[in-house]
Structure formats: C-alpha cells, structure tokens
Amino acid sequence: MPCNLEMERVLKDDAIQEKGERARMASFVGAMAIADLVKTTLGPKGMDKILQSTGRGRSVTVTNDGATILKSLHIDNPAAKVLVDISKVQDDEVGDGTTSVVVLAGELLREAEKLVNMKIHPMTIIAGYRMAAECARNALLQKTMDNKDNTDKFRSDLMNIAMTTLSSKILSQDKEYFAELAVDAVLRLKGSTNLESIQILKKPGGSLKDSFLDEGFILDKKIGLGQPKRIENANILVANTAMDTDKVKIYGARVRVDSMSKVADIEAAEKQKMREKVEKIIGHGINCFVNRQLIYNFPEELFADAGILAVEHADFEGIERLALVTGGDIASTFDNPESVKLGHCKLIEEIMIGEDRLIHFSGVAMGQACTIVLRGASEHVLDEAERSLHDALCVLSQTVNDTRVIFGGGWPEMVMSKEVDELARRTPGKKSHAIDAFSRALQAIPTIIADNAGLDSAELISQLRAEHHKENSTVGIDVISGGLGDMQKRGICEAFKVKQAIVLSATEAAEMILRVDEIITCAPRRREDRM
Fold first, then answer.
1. Is 98 a catalytic residue?
2. Any idea which GO molecular function terms this record carries (predicted)?
3. Same fold, 16-145+407-521 and 150-209+370-402
C-alpha cells in the first residue's frame, strides 16, 4: 500500500490519472459522442446544425459540413479531439467526406469496445483492423472506373460526382445548375489543384438560382470619382504602398514654426513629394492602379487628370488574387519601372450586381481564372452555399488529377464489407473477430444514410447485402425513392480518392485511440494571490 501512495505523490496535487479500463472507457465514450453528434448530417437527407458562438455578436452558423461543425466545438475529451483533427485533415486534403470519416472512426471504436469486453487485446484488434483496411482498399481498387481518355464521359463523371457531393448540402435543390458551375470552373484550371484562381463572391439578394460563373476577375470595389469607367487593353499596376502622405500627420509629428506661412511651405513640400510619387507611378505606362492602402484626394485627382483608374483599399486576398490572375507583381517601390511586372487584361469595366457596383476585369492573362458569384436570401444561406461549393470544387480538382471514380450511395461500403467478411472467414485466430468487426462498422454508413432518410435500415441493408453477393452488382440505397436503386443508372458517383482517404484516416484514428491505456491530466497552474 505505501508503494501506491509514493506513486500518487510523483504527480502534482491536482493532476488526475486515469488508468486501464477507465481511461479506455473515457476515450471510447468521447469519440462515440462526437460521431453521434455529426451522424445525423450524413447523406442526402441529413439535417443541418445551428452553431451559436458565445463570443461578441453571438454569431450564428447554419451548416451541414462535418468539419465546420467539429471545428466550432470546444472539446475537453482528448479522444474526441483526435476525431476533430481527422475531419479537419480530410477537409484540407480532399474537401469532402468529413462527416463519413468521423462516423466510420466512431463505429470502429464502438465495435472495438465490444471486442475489448470480450478480453481481446487492443493490439490484436489493431492488427485485424490493419489487415481489413488494406483488404477494403484493394476491393475498391478493383472496382474503380477510369474515363480519363474519353473527354465527354469524364465530364459526365465529374458532373455526377459534383451532384452527389452537393446533394447532401443546401444546394441540393439546384444541384445540376451548381454542378455545372463547379465543373466548368475546375476544368478551366487544367489539372492544377490550386483553387485560388477561382474566386467566390457572395452578394445577398436574389435567389440561389441567380448565381453565375464569370470569366475573369471581379473586385468588390467602386471606381473613384472623375476616373474612366471603362478601359480597354489595360496595364495594371498592383501595389501595396501609402498614398496618404500629402497632409501632415498631426498625431505623430511635432513641428515648431514662427509663422503660418512656414506651415504652408511644409504642406507644399509634402504635396510636392506626393506629386513626385504619383508621377513615378504614372511613368510605368499604366492606365489602372490598384492599391492595398488608402489613396487620398490629392493623388486621386492627379490619377484622374492622367486618365488612370485608381482603386484604393482593395482587400488583401483580392490584391494577391488580382496579381496572380493578371500576371503582375505586387509593387511597393516605384524607382525602377523596368523591374516591375505589370498585369494585363483586355477590358476593365464597372458592373452592377444587385445594388452594388463592382469592377470587372475580363480577358485576364491567366486563362484559368474565373469568379463564381453566389446570390442568396441571407448571409447564412450564402456562407453555407460557399462551403458546399468549396467542397465540390475540392473534390473535382482532386478527381481531375486522380481520375478513378466509384459509385456512391452505400455501394462502396458494401463492396468493401463483403471482401472484408471473406477475409475474416479465411483468417485464423482472434484477429478474425476484429476483421469481422471492421466489416460491421463499414455497413454502419449505409445504415445511417437509410436511418436519416427515415427508411427501415435493417430491411434495406439485408437486401443490399444479398444483392452484393451477386457478381458485379451496382446496387446502392436510393434515398429519393426509398428503396434500393441501381447507382449506375441514377448516376450517383464518388471520387475514389475521397473514399480511400476516409477508410485509411478512420482506421488510423481508431487505432490511435485504441492504443490508449492511461490519461494523465496536468494540474492547472495556480494563480498566486497578487495582493
């Protein structure tokens, strides 16, 4: 007994140590609670969540995107944090499948808990899961389709993937329309996964149907007074420089003068300095000047006299993107014009969207660039539409690189589960229990999709399993008709890369949580009484 007490004293007073069974319970419970939280957002009939922050302004987010929901939660349970992380990584890596990855990891842990209660060692379970994940991935690999050589077929694949991704989001009503937008935007990228050249502008007003894709670049700024409203064959200088030094800054400077005329001299000198700077800028042979910072009235007049369009206070992302798409550099000194790379575009004009005036750059140097303008009833709708569209764009840009496609609607899970089942029957020893559990966890995803749609999941999954025992079945759950449907005819497709990422990340996360046998919570730092 004294030995135990000694052990307790090693850690600080308030540190908490949970061991063995209790630690494992805590991590299982935490992870499953997180999985159950996002479970209801899965599938075409998934519901949304309202997240209200406790900060200033009490901002409200309405979302269906697993990663966004989990990012906004403040979680104390260490195992639950692991799941939040995998959904974040899934979002950054492939853009979609953020909910599925958490649900699958939660189901794997739920099955693992039963196995641990049967006195099977966690390492045995992990070894079984590893084998099962490898087997599941190979099963999918054999069933992928690849149409990258046939352009029309590949485009219809992309359309199907985009519609499948959007069908569980707010855009599901107009999914054909938005899928078309997303596919057009991604095909313009010509295989790059850099989504920066696709700009998404949100303008409240109108309905979601009024959204459109615009070739070129739109800057959310007004054109200054007395400046040309339309410029053809523009040479654009993008800059980040202070254009407000023509007035003495009262706060920062202390100037002692004998008479008022001296103040006038100082002001004249300041103005002269500004005029020289403007002349240097005009000397670049430009007819459009876009600045990150303020432009005061005096330089603005000078630009207007020279017939140059000057835009002030463009937001930072806008500046970087503008420089990127027009092929220019962001300049901050103007002494040697030959070293500054100017941006070019064919036409700059002012357009109206709703009640706002914006500046439209068309015929930009980088042909990939385009702007998607989203219209919608309110800010919340627009934010959610942007998240949904972003998911679709991510998935499509990944698919353009890795062109393998599989069916959706619970079909891939059933294919994997069938192969994993057969592996379990062939494997001797306790591992086979774990492999069997993996196959049950995979079937949970179609089960949840059916449950969320209010269908009889037990009945549907058993029918689905029977169908999949026939060779090359393409049957999955058709939520719209409320029964089984042929995924090939319905055109429900997913990217292979997304599914592969889901299976591998979920297995690794479950593995990590299974390995835990002790949780040590550090003692909080005490604040000394500062009296």
1. yes
2. ATP binding; ATP hydrolysis activity; ATP-dependent protein folding chaperone; unfolded protein binding
3. no
Question: Which residue among the candidates 98, 371, 403, 507 is catalytic per the annotation?
Answer: 98
pLDDT score of 102: 93
Split at pLDDT 50, 70, 90, the class of 528 is low
CATH superfamily of the 16-145+407-521 domain: GroEL-like equatorial domain (1.10.560.10)
Point out the catalytic residue in the list 96, 157, 383, 391.
Answer: 391
DSSP 337: G
Of 41, 61, 63, 65, the catalytic one is 65
Residue boundaries of the structural domains of the chain: 16-145+407-521, 150-209+370-402, 217-366
In order, the DSSP letters of 177-216 are HHHHHHHHHHHHTTT---GGGEEEEEEEBS-GGG-EEEES
User: Pairing state of beta strands 49-52 and 60-63?
Assistant: antiparallel
pTM: 0.83
CATH of domain 150-209+370-402: 3.30.260.10
Please indicate whether residue 335 is annotated as part of the active site.
no
Fold of 217-366: GroEL (3.50.7)
61 is catalytic: no
SS (H, E, C) 386-432: HHHHHHHHHHHHHHHHCCEEEECCCHHHHHHHHHHHHHHHHCCCCHH
The pLDDT confidence band at residue 4, using thresholds 50, 70 and 90, is low
**Amino acid in position 2:** P
Check if 329 is active-site.
Answer: no
